[in-house]
Amino acid sequence: METRDSMGAIVNAVTIVVCGMIGMIFKAGIPKRYNERIMHGIGLSVLAIGIVGIMSMENTMVMILSILSGAMIGEKLRIEENVNTLVKSLEKKTSHWKDFNNLGEGFITATMIFCVGSMAIIGPIESGLAGDNSILYAKSVMDGIVSILLGSSLGAGVILASIPVLLYEGGLTLLATLIGPLLGPTVINEIVVVGSLLLIGLGLNLLDITDLKLMNYTPAVIFPVIFMQFF
Questions:
Q1: How many CB atoms lie under 10 A from the CB of residue 32?
Q2: 102: left (phi over 0), alpha (psi -120 to 50) or beta
Q3: CA angle 149-151-153, nearest 5°?
Q4: Which range of residues forms the domain containing residue 113?
Q5: Which of 51-60, 99-108, 141-150 shows the lowest per-residue confidence on average (mean pLDDT)?
Q6: How many domains does the chain have?
Q7: How far apart are CA 42 and CA 151, in angstroms?
């Protein structure tokens, strides 16, 4: 993978770290009730973004099969359980630092917001296919603002989300260079639809309406590439 191709993912990850730290600095001065309102506001925004994204759906069967397949694989691999175990272990090692309490919620929430939106899918693909990082740079600005808000409410777990963001966006960039011919506009659209459905689930979780194990659904975003070859 060329350096120019991965630069968008690197900038995005670094922005999340820096802005997450800024949010953590603000955290001490923000009353708990404001933190709750911030999280619910983010939840409503994420829900709206997901609804807008899913409205572009053209193939219902691909979405359904992708979600079901992703859920089965995610459950088999116990992705969320393993992530929580890893994060809890890190929490114990950093328990003497107040800002490192409750790493799991911050990590999972931030990772889902930063990794399954339409820009997180289209940006790396554009980077891999055309060497164009403009979408990822724009996403970095937006993620920076969200990182400040999340960092002020959920602490250091938001910073840790920079790791899966870098791996996901960098990996998707590389994948796009390898399977470019399979990633036509219709395939990309269905990937975005599946990602948008996960955002709707995240928005509902943030609003305390549901308690979905969304990390177990994340493999679903790769299945439209497969199913669109048959539908």
A1: 8
A2: left
A3: 75
A4: 3-227
A5: 99-108
A6: 1
A7: 12
